[in-house]
Backbone:
């Protein structure tokens, strides 16, 4: 009985700690004047939200740009990462450990260590300060997640069904389209959503490669935070959380459900 | 033979793209750190940039601060995550809701959390207001400096908040794979709850815990945006110091920025090697 109550208390503390930092963000975003030492704002207003969502603030533009970059990076990463994941998941070969490590390294190494040099390379290629350059830079942290999640997916995939399809006269494309793709689709969706979130959360690579000319949401967030506009900053910060929330609800079955998807997928959760 | 070609073909795009971007980026950082920069008239590689940063007190202080941030955050987050995983493993009313919050936190970008922590713990933040309302302090200056402070408490709080769920979910996934049989056997052989945890469960969780902690350490050590929001003016976290040197209008500081980036990369590589070793060992044990 005593242990049960202790467990409930710990769970409650954990839940509180998890939501705590979002509370002032929610209050600030609808506050009208909230001076120290008032516990609550003098009044409530949706002005910060209507400003953030109006054309003047540049937030909508930035939202579209950030979504566009993250989507394009996700598609690129899938095109490159699915074959690599297949190689790692289906086959045993010499040097596999080394290849895995090499494909994992860019996700572990701090972005800032790569960004400085990459900027120099991109400057020469005319990619610095461009959206294309930022997308390519985002591939560095995104591709490892895509590859490793797909490797986990393919390790549970039975290639014999492909051979059977070919034996029955299917072309390679038909085999991929009608046999392989349906089998890997749930895993691919999870990997794609994670990839989207990793690109969506990037700050330092965007800033270094984009040189401030590619204004994704975190850059806009920073400029309002620096200007001391807590209400607008809070509204943008909450907007910035939304895709993550959507992803979580979309993948909820895989994440909370039992089974292999969990242990395979969670290891590669975006950071 | 055809199999090998097939594998190589499948891997080629990823190896070329990642190699092209990651290795050239890292390579140029390294080259520039040796002060090889023909555009600036530097054609003789040397170690002057490293000598320069090693003799500036600012660099060593920043390095020490970043190591302190990473070590403290990782230790606290790992310890709390172990507890959280053991709690969330049992069924209790509201478990689904708490798990949802833990997962939700994982998707929130670090910058958003950092701003939230700032609004909570700064000297005019929510807790300072609560302390004032309770009559504990008479003004913002009486509230302890928890953000932008020399001990980086705000930064550590942010990482504990953000990384606890990451480690917890990895541990929960491990626990689910392990099942409860090992513990049941230990208990039936007369082990106490603590002995079962200490000698049966913990050793089995160790590879997962160690690799997750390694990833957290590498991130907390090398992240730029979190100390930018929550860090003190001096000393700065190493990535912030490196960024400042990189964006300095005086181009002569560029090689020093590159040398600091190399130091950051080296510590990242070291942790990658440690993570790879524990994962390897875990896999070997599992076999």
Residues:
């Amino acid at each position: 009985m005593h242990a049960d109550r202790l467990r409930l208390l710990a769970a409650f503390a954990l839940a509180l700690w998890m939501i705590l930092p979002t509370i002032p963000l929610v209050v600030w975003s609808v506050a009208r004047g909230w001076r120290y030492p008032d516990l609550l704002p003098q009044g409530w207003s949706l002005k910060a939200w209507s400003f953030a969502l109006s054309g003047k603030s540049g937030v909508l533009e930035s939202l579209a740009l950030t979504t566009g970059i993250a989507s394009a990076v996700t598609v690129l990463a899938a095109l490159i990462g699915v074959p690599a994941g297949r190689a790692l998941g289906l086959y045993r070969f010499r040097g596999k450990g080394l290849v895995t490590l090499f494909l994992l390294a860019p996700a572990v190494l701090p972005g800032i260590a790569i960004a400085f040099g990459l900027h120099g390379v991109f400057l020469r290629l005319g990619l610095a300060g461009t959206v294309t350059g930022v997308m390519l830079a985002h591939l560095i942290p995104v591709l490892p997640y895509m590859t490793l999640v797909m490797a986990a997916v393919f390790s549970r995939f039975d290639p014999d069904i492909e051979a059977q399809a070919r034996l029955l006269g299917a072309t390679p494309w038909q085999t991929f389209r009608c046999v392989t793709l349906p089998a890997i689709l749930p895993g691919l969706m999870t990997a794609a959503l994670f990839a989207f979130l990793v690109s969506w959360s990037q700050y330092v690579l965007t800033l270094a490669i984009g040189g401030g000319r590619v204004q994704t949401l975190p850059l806009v967030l920073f400029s309002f935070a620096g200007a001391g506009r807590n209400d607008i900053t809070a509204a943008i910060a909450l907007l910035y959380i939304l895709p993550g929330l959507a992803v979580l609800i979309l993948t909820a079955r895989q994440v909370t459900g039992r089974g292999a998807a969990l242990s395979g997928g969670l290891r590669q959760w975006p950071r | 033979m055809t199999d090998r070609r097939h594998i190589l073909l499948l891997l080629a795009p990823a190896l070329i793209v990642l190699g092209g971007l990651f290795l050239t980026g890292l390579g140029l950082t390294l080259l520039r750190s040796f002060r090889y920069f023909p555009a600036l008239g530097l054609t003789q590689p040397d170690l002057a940039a490293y000598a320069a940063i090693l003799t500036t007190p600012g660099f060593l202080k920043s390095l020490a601060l970043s190591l302190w941030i990473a070590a403290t955050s990782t230790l606290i987050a790992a310890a709390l995550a172990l507890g959280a995983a053991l709690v969330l493993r049992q069924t209790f009313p509201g478990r689904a809701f708490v798990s949802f919050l833990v997962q939700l936190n994982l998707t929130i970008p670090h910058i958003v959390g950092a701003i939230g922590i700032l609004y909570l713990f700064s000297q005019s933040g929510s807790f300072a207001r609560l302390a004032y309302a309770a009559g504990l302090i008479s003004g913002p200056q009486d509230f302890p400096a928890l953000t932008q402070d020399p001990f980086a408490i705000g930064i550590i709080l942010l990482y504990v908040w953000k990384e606890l769920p990451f480690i917890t979910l990895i541990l929960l996934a491990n626990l689910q794979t392990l099942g409860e049989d090992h513990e049941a056997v230990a208990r039936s052989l007369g082990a106490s709850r603590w002995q079962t945890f200490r000698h049966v469960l913990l050793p089995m969780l160790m590879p997962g815990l160690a690799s997750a902690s390694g990833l957290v350490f590498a991130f907390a050590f090398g992240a730029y945006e979190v100390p930018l929001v929550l860090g003190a003016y001096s000393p700065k976290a190493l990535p912030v110091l490196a960024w400042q040197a990189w964006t300095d209008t005086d181009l002569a500081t560029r090689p020093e920025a590159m040398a600091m980036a190399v130091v950051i990369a080296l510590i990242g590589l070291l942790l990658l090697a440690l993570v790879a070793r524990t994962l390897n060992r875990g896999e070997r044990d599992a076999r």
Remarks:
- The two ends of chain A are 37 Å apart (CA to CA).
- Chain A touches chain B through 91 residues (CB under 8 Å).
- The first strand of chain A starts at residue 31 and ends at 32.
- The domain at 56-266 of chain A is CATH 1.10.3720.10 (MetI-like fold).
